[in-house]
Amino acid sequence: MLGEVPVRLLIVEDDDAIAAPLLRALQREEYDVDRVAAGLPAIERVAAGGVDLVLLDLGLPDLDGLDVCRRLRADGFEGGIVILTARAGELDRVVGLDVGADDYLAKPFSLSELLARVRALLRRSHRPAVAAAVPPATAGPAAPAGTARFAVDPAARRAWAGTEELSLTAKEFDVLALLDERRGTVVTREDLMARVWDENWFGSTKTLDTTVGRLRQKLQDAGAPIRLDTVRGVGFRLEDAAPDA
Q1: For residue 203, what are the CA distances in angstroms to 94, 107, 175?
Q2: Of the listed ranges 59-73, 79-93, 120-134, the one predicted with least confidence
Q3: Topology of 8-133 in CATH?
Q4: Does the keyword section mention DNA-binding (predicted)?
Q5: How far apart are CA 166 and CA 221, in angstroms?
């Protein structure tokens, strides 16, 4: 099915109970999959070339997964990195994304959600042959029909730019869905923090700025005909972008 351009994934996970079923599931999707159980072998395997996406555990026996992620990016790896971890703290998620991860899933996670995120990340690859080789989703709704080039489905928790499904973290989707629900109007920072995080949130709002920054970049990368504006001192506004002249 994948023809002459195999899509190769690397699982970096030391727990056999997690790695084995994940390996089988990805192989059923017709990906070529390698697995290593520590950080240094992962860095060496990626350096050897041919890896398109890394599924990276943080709790590795030799290096912290965040350090592995940082080193992969420092070494020039441009493929996708999805962090899989039992660490549920907001700080860990923010740091993981800041050091170069594209997505973050907390254990236990839904296998179907993981596969959907893998597909979406690979479609965003800058290698056309890789994007063309990604297996289609085996289940779930197709992108909305019609002429709309941007759509958000809150019930399915999915969003599209054209025919491309956006790969969004849970918080990124929640922010996007709320802004889309009120498209064209300003949503205050306080409202976003209360609705997406918690009304009793007392921490820094830097996490909101980080989430919005990543979301804005993903919309731009996908060519979505939508603009996410910052209204200084108030909040954010999502509105249709002006068509090209």
Answers
A1: 13, 24, 18
A2: 120-134
A3: Rossmann fold (3.40.50)
A4: yes
A5: 10
